[in-house]
Amino acid sequence: MLERTPAAEAAAEQSVLPRLFSLRVPFLRLAAGGAARRFAGFSWRYGAILIFLLAWQLLSQFNIVDQSMIPPFSKVVAALLNGFSDGNLLGNMLISLRRSGIGFGIAVVLAIPLGLFMGTFQRFESIIDALLQMFRQTSALAIYPIFILLLGLGETSKITIICWAAFFPLLLNTISGVKLVDSRLIEMARVFGASKWAVFRRVVLPAAAPSIFVGLRLSATTALLLLVAAEMIGAKRGLGFVVINAQYNFEIPLMFAAIVLLAVIGLTANYGLLRLQKRVCRWQQAGQAKAGPLRTSRV
Prior knowledge:
It is a single chain. With 299 residues, the chain is mainly alpha-helical. It has two domains: 11-69, no CATH class; 73-282, MetI-like (MetI-like fold, Orthogonal Bundle). The chain has eleven helices and no strands. The chain has helices at 6-61, 73-85, 88-120, 122-137, 140-151, 155-179, 183-191, 196-231, 239-248, 252-280, 282-298. Helix 2 (73-85) crosses helix 3 (88-120) and helix 3 (88-120) runs parallel beside helix 6. Mean pLDDT is 82; it is low at 293-299.
């Protein structure tokens, strides 16, 4: 075999480098294009929030609005960080999450099975629908004093009012989801010999799942709203207590910090439920992806 001289090896390396560079340039362009698309998607989705926060900072910083009433967003962030560093906000946040989580969990355990049953057996629904509608139209804040009289100012009354408020949106969306199942799918499953339990498990429940997740998101939002109201009455811990106590003591940055933290918790819960819905209802995403080009072509 012939040995390669150093000059031949250098020439070979010089011939390889342009080929490697020519392969690297399209890859870099593709990566840059993907990063640009991700940035554009982020800006399109969250640009309004960023503009709002920037306007908040500038209007307050330049005294266009009263800083004593609406402090700059930078001061709110500083109060938020200080509250987490000294453990005040973190401890109250964990207490609030425990209360809302227990109330929301009880509502889920009660509302989804009852909604599936009422949606399947419409005669049973017609019997108790009027009673449920009467309770649903009654404001949870209006009956909260009744819960306080019966259960006291402790944790039980707060968890109960959260469960009460979160129960009805989830129940009604579950019933609606079962009723909107295409009857042709049920008939087709029965033609192929599926049992009632198989029809319910493989047809009714998957078809009603998107509506159930809408109810879960509405109920989670309602649970947070009632949590704040419940903690403002007779509570000594929790984010709602922090808001009302900071207002009384004129600690306005801390008050806004607790409000911002509640908003972040709500957004996180909503995003988490959306991600869970995408994982559970993969068939829905696939159906939308297939139907998308057809709808576009029609337009």
